[in-house]
């Protein structure tokens, strides 16, 4: 038996800082060239505690990057018509190049209808029908921030994707499905596993690249990981002691993988960084029309 080789830990905080520095320099260039800073509007309805923290983080990140932010904080009781009116107002506002409606929305609001009402060129979450279509067609468009950040992590680590077997665990519209399409676009052979997958261990054992986006603490065991695999953990779960845990059993997985991300400090910091990057992309497209 040779000595165990530990995986290289992909540093999401450092790569997010790199992306944010690129964004800051692009924002300054746009402001100098067009006389207007790139602008992002963030809409929050109600007081969901996680949403309060996320929205605060997004607004702070804008300020640090030289992106103008427009915060729309609406009461829990906001009707669908009122929310649609806010979205339509932001769609028309020339200072605003990106609009993000923080999810989840209160019960009386339909997220689908709100997402469909967003101007496609301002849909920096990439959740709307136009951008979803562009991704599935392999055409340029705004890509959902979390999977887009996972791809950037793999690229920065130098992980080759073409020809590899990639496994996405989880089929959400926000992460799993767009992640699978991004990997397909990069010529990986892609499998999507989910709660009804017959033998998750066997799927993981075959995969050269594993993207874990299930939302169940340490459901993916380290012993399942194929030696030399790249493992990206999107999970953010609270353990029994309140500790933040990923979807992957980190320590055991790191003994088999070649590359792995931690929770926290992996994918988490990338989501906001890629949102800022998408806002730059949206601003450039709108200002050079
Ligand atoms: N809630 C949790 N994740 C997200 C996200 O990526 N975008 C939005 N708008 N809401 C979220």
- Estimate nothing, just give the exact number of structural domains: 2
- Enter the CATH topology name of the largest domain: Rossmann fold
- Helix count? 10
Mean of residue pLDDT? Answer: 97
CATH architecture of the largest domain: 3-Layer(aba) Sandwich
The secondary-structure element order is EHEHEHEHHHEHEHEEEEHEH
Quote the distance from N terminus to C terminus: 61 Å
Strand order of the largest sheet: 1-11-8-7-5-6
Please count the beta strands (DSSP E, at least 2 residues each): 11
Query: How much strand content do the residues show?
Result: 15-25%
Explain what you see.
The protein is globular. The protein has ten helices and eleven strands. The protein has two domains: 34-119, Rossmann fold (3-Layer(aba) Sandwich); 144-268, 3-Layer(aba) Sandwich (Rossmann fold). Strands 1-11-8-7-5-6 form a six-stranded parallel β-sheet, with helices on both faces. It has a three-stranded parallel β-sheet with strand order 3-2-4, with helices on both faces. The longest helix is centred in the first third of the chain and has 23 residues, at 12-34. It has helices at 12-34, 49-65, 80-92, 111-117, 129-136, 145-157, 176-185, 200-206, 250-254, 268-287, and strands at residues 8-10, 39-45, 68-74, 98-101, 165-169, 189-193, 209-212, 230-233, 237-238, 244-245, 259-261. It is an alpha/beta fold. Helix 1 packs parallel to helix 10, helix 2 crosses helix 10 (268-287) and helix 6 (145-157) packs across helix 7. Guanine is lined by residues 100-103, 125, 145-146, 174. The site of guanine (GUN) has 8 residues, from strand 4 and helix 6.
């Amino acid at each position: 038996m040779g000595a165990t080789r530990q995986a290289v830990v992909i540093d999401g905080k450092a790569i997010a800082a790199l992306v944010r520095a690129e964004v800051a320099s692009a924002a300054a260039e746009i402001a100098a060239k067009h006389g207007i800073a790139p602008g992002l509007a963030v809409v929050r309805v109600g007081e969901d505690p996680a949403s309060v923290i996320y929205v605060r983080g997004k607004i702070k990140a804008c300020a640090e990057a030289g992106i103008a932010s427009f915060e729309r904080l609406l009461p829990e009781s906001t009707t669908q018509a009122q929310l649609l009116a806010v979205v339509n107002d932001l769609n028309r506002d020339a200072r605003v190049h990106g609009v993000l409606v923080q999810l989840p929305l209160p019960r009386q609001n339909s997220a689908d209808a709100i997402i469909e009402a967003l101007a496609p060129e301002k849909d920096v979450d990439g959740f709307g029908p136009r951008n979803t279509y562009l991704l599935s067609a392999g055409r340029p468009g705004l890509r959902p921030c979390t999977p887009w950040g996972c791809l950037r992590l793999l690229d920065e680590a130098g992980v080759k994707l073409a020809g590899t077997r990639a496994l996405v665990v989880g089929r959400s519209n926000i992460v799993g499905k767009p992640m699978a399409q991004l990997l397909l676009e990069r010529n990986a052979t892609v499998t999507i596993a989910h709660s009804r997958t017959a033998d998750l261990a066997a799927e993981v054992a075959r995969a050269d690249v594993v993207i874990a986006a299930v939302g169940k603490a340490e459901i993916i065991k380290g012993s399942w990981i194929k030696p030399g695999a790249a493992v990206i953990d999107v999970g953010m779960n609270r353990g029994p002691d309140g500790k933040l845990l990923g979807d992957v059993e980190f320590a055991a997985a790191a003994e088999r993988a070649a590359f792995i991300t931690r929770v926290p400090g992996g994918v988490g910091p990338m989501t906001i960084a890629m949102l800022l990057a998408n806002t730059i992309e949206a601003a450039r497209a709108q200002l050079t029309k």
